[in-house]
Amino acid sequence: xxxxxxxxxxxxxxxxxxxxxxxxxxxxxxxxTVPSAMSWLLIIYILPLVGIITYLLFGEPNLGKRxxxxxxxxWPYTVKCITNLKERRHPLSIKNSELxxxxxxxxxxxxxxxxxxxxxxxxxxxxxxxxxALIHDINLAQNNIEMVxxxxxxxxxxxKVAEALMTAARRGVRCRVMLxxxxxxxxxxxxxxxxxxxxxxxxxxxxxxxxLRMFLRxxxxxxxxxxxxxDNYIAYTGSMNMVDPRFFKQNAGVGxxxxxxxxxxxxxxxxxxxxxxxxxxxETGERIRTPHPDVNIMQFKQTVxxxxxxxxxxxxxxxxxxxxxxxxxxxxxxxxxxxxxPYLVPSDDLLHAICTAAxxxxxxxxxxxxxxxxxxxxxxxxxxxxxLLEAGVFIHQFEGGLLHTKSVLVDGQLSLVGTVNLDMRSLxxxxxxxxxxxxxNFGNELAKVQKxxxxxxxxxxxxxxxxxxxxxxxxxxxxxxxxxxx
Length: 486
Known about the structure:
The protein is of the alpha/beta class. The chain is built from 19 helices and 17 strands.
């Protein structure tokens, strides 16, 4: 009997160390940053069983076998759609500003399409104005409406959006809505999904969260895009989820969420339609036939309007392109760089680029919310403040609510707006979208919005920050340890 237990114990011990070794090998083989790899290895060796389970759940951007197969098969069709657009040369940007040229060249080589001109943009800073404009466009829709959001929260004007959508579906408009399973968990537990489906709206729960799927797909890989497409020529995107801030997270103690959205009429809607069709097919297996480019771009004139490039990220799209776009934009800055983000947990490369910009004389302003809905990110982001302040970066803590706007403005000319946070999850994992706008007029509009944010923010003094209590520094460093994993 003793021999039997000895053999069993030896086998279990051997299996345990074999598992540790195999996971260690996976961490080392996978292409990732050194800090990220070291963080995972430390977690695995300090908390072996917990670390192994955590790595299997969150360590690799695993889309799942079925979705990954669809994504791979979809790419040739996506290339064909982009090629069709490039053959219609009149909406393509012939030239860009000196500031924007490197970024647009990067996007062209990585994504296969140049920037598109002839777009008309309207910037919304009020959620009420955004939702009312959206309801108006939905009521006028004749052919199709597509939406994708991370969060859909019922209440307030959002319910009127749902009612308008259901009315549109009843009159024959094809309506598709894709919502992230984790972000919209309350919505899918409510009555609206059934009501919308009964009205003819095709509602899809993306990246379904389930205990049974835990080890088959990474659970924190999320559909984080925010897009609305109407009749193939009107598009909305930005940082706003489908929520009325007066009814959203009122007990979180962070105030109302502050967002921006843009409404675009023009050929960019074609590219955004291709992105939506990719997401839809990856999730459902159903192919949406994107309209011929002539349907919605021939009416727009190249000589007027804004020049825009669309950057999409996530499984199935060019890896790391948004991260590269941010680096290119920051290094292009010569006079001023203003960045707003709710979650500041940058990669080493991004941190270095921001600090370097300030050290070469660029006035760099980073605006973050003073109070955050994520305790982990809130403490982890503070660990970067000292290095940023030492480099000469101005850090402003917004006190008028939870600043959820994701924006970058370079020298008043080059703007990046969309869904991307300055954290690892947005940069390397989630499905995201960013618009790059090369236009001085739009830059002036965005500058006014950012100036308003600055007026409602408190500037952190470097001397004040260096005198903060030591217990805060310890907590910051503790959460900094997890920053490559956030």
